[in-house]
Prior knowledge:
There is one protein chain. This protein has about 290 residues and is of the alpha+beta class. The chain folds into 2 domains: about 1-120 and about 275-290, Diaminopimelate Epimerase, Chain A, domain 1, CATH 3.10.310; about 130-265, Diaminopimelate Epimerase, Chain A, domain 1 (Roll). It is built from 6 helices and 15 strands. A hairpin with a 2-residue loop joins strand 6 and strand 7 (about 105-110). It starts with a strand and ends with a strand.
Amino acid sequence: MREYTFVLADVFTEHAFGGNQLAVLPDARGLSDDEMQALAREFNFSESAFVLPPDDPAHTRRLRIFTPGSELPFAGHPTVGTAAVLAARGAVRDRLVLEEGVGLVTVEVAGTFSRLTLASPYETPDHYPSVTAVAAALSVPPEDVVETWYGGVGLPFCFVRLADRASVDRTVFDRAAWQAGPADGWAASIYVFAGHLTDGGRLYARSFPDMLEGGEDPATGSAAAGLAATLAQRHGCRAQEYGLRIDQGVAMGRPSDLHASARTRDGALASVSVGGHTVIVGEGTVRLPD
Length: 290
């Protein structure tokens, strides 16, 4: 039998049993693709992270991220949480360069707080989701929808800004209506929020990623990165950084606190960052046949 250590962590929270759950295998050498996928199904969290030696020795580690159904090129809470876990175990110092499917991701760790920085470009198509179709998928009246757009850094999302926090809480996600309408567009995952897109703004959000097959995500770092990038693109100032605080997961009983920022240089997006605290809640061993 082969034994592998796993660590369970809650990400984007300072309190156990809040934030987004994550399983991390700090040393996944020897696992096949099928075994990683099977373990992600076994843990059954939104994502599980598998740490491998880097392809380039100048980098810290290679990170592979799996949902219960597939592998992702990048995700925020597995990146932030894995860095915190490795640092807590003494495996790395306070700065990591991780190889992921989207390229290199830098993570700074200070105690339980980790912040990733990603230089992948912000992508957005030249069309917008239908307000009427989005409202139907969220079970809210169209007048509650302030604006919608597609965008993403690393992963694509349909962003939906609603009138207020109460509108976000009233949202009931209708996956059938979503798949029949806006999901056929540029992004299959939807991120709903209320608040002001200004520097230092505080947002209240809920997320319904495609890979959760109808479920809700308590903290979505990749969506937070996309929101911060949107803010930076709209302002487009020289060497300017914009920051957001995002409360997510409250409606699920897993409150999360995400710190997102984006920096522009010469009117173009230079990088996006997402950070938060991580709490380690347990560890154990899985056994696999030779």
